[in-house]
Amino acid sequence: MFIPVEKIWEVIENKYEAIMVAAKEARRLNQVDREKYKNSPAKPTLDALRKLVEKKIKYIYKEE
After folding, report:
1. Closest C-alpha to 11, from 58, 54, 61
2. Which single residue of 15, 41, 48, 50 has CA 20 to 30 Å from 7?
3. How far is Cα 61 from Cα 64, in angstroms, rounded to an integer?
4. Cβ(48)–Cβ(19) under 8 Å?
Protein backbone atom coordinates (compact mmCIF):
# COMPACT_ATOMS: atom_id res chain seq x y z
CA MET A 1 0.00 0.00 0.00
CA PHE A 2 1.28 3.43 -0.92
CA ILE A 3 0.28 6.63 0.88
CA PRO A 4 0.92 9.82 -1.09
CA VAL A 5 2.78 12.49 0.83
CA GLU A 6 0.22 15.07 -0.25
CA LYS A 7 -2.48 13.24 1.72
CA ILE A 8 -0.35 13.42 4.87
CA TRP A 9 0.23 17.16 4.40
CA GLU A 10 -3.54 17.67 4.03
CA VAL A 11 -4.00 16.34 7.56
CA ILE A 12 -1.01 18.04 9.20
CA GLU A 13 0.64 20.88 7.28
CA ASN A 14 3.83 20.89 9.32
CA LYS A 15 5.96 18.08 7.87
CA TYR A 16 8.08 17.66 11.00
CA GLU A 17 5.00 17.42 13.20
CA ALA A 18 3.35 14.87 10.88
CA ILE A 19 6.43 12.64 10.96
CA MET A 20 6.71 12.91 14.75
CA VAL A 21 3.04 11.97 15.25
CA ALA A 22 3.32 9.00 12.86
CA ALA A 23 6.60 7.82 14.41
CA LYS A 24 5.18 7.88 17.94
CA GLU A 25 2.08 5.99 16.80
CA ALA A 26 4.25 3.41 15.00
CA ARG A 27 6.26 2.86 18.19
CA ARG A 28 3.04 2.49 20.17
CA LEU A 29 1.60 0.00 17.67
CA ASN A 30 4.82 -2.02 17.71
CA GLN A 31 4.86 -2.23 21.51
CA VAL A 32 1.16 -3.03 21.88
CA ASP A 33 0.88 -5.70 19.20
CA ARG A 34 4.39 -6.98 18.48
CA GLU A 35 3.14 -10.44 17.43
CA LYS A 36 0.88 -8.97 14.74
CA TYR A 37 3.80 -7.36 12.94
CA LYS A 38 6.25 -10.22 13.42
CA ASN A 39 5.05 -12.30 10.43
CA SER A 40 2.87 -9.77 8.66
CA PRO A 41 3.63 -7.88 5.45
CA ALA A 42 2.07 -4.81 7.09
CA LYS A 43 4.47 -2.75 9.17
CA PRO A 44 3.67 -0.46 12.09
CA THR A 45 5.06 2.54 10.23
CA LEU A 46 2.67 2.09 7.32
CA ASP A 47 -0.26 1.43 9.65
CA ALA A 48 0.57 4.61 11.57
CA LEU A 49 0.67 6.68 8.37
CA ARG A 50 -2.63 5.17 7.23
CA LYS A 51 -4.23 6.03 10.58
CA LEU A 52 -2.83 9.56 10.33
CA VAL A 53 -4.36 10.09 6.88
CA GLU A 54 -7.69 8.68 8.11
CA LYS A 55 -7.55 11.09 11.09
CA LYS A 56 -7.71 8.25 13.61
CA ILE A 57 -4.78 9.52 15.69
CA LYS A 58 -5.51 12.06 18.39
CA TYR A 59 -2.61 14.26 19.40
CA ILE A 60 -1.98 17.44 21.29
CA TYR A 61 0.54 20.01 20.16
CA LYS A 62 2.29 21.71 23.07
CA GLU A 63 4.06 24.98 22.57
CA GLU A 64 7.01 25.48 24.85
Report:
1. 54
2. 41
3. 10
4. no
**What are the extents of the domains in the chain?**
5-53
- Residue 25's φ and ψ, nearest 5 degrees, are -65, -40
34: amino acid identity, one letter? R
Q: Count the Cβ atoms, other than its own, within 10 Å of residue 45.
A: 16
Average pLDDT in the 46-64 region?
A: 89
CA distances from 57 to 28, 37, 43, 47, 64 (A): 11, 19, 17, 11, 22
pLDDT in tens, 22-45: 999 999 998 888 777 777 777 889
Are 17 and 43 a contacting pair, CB within 8 Å?
Answer: no
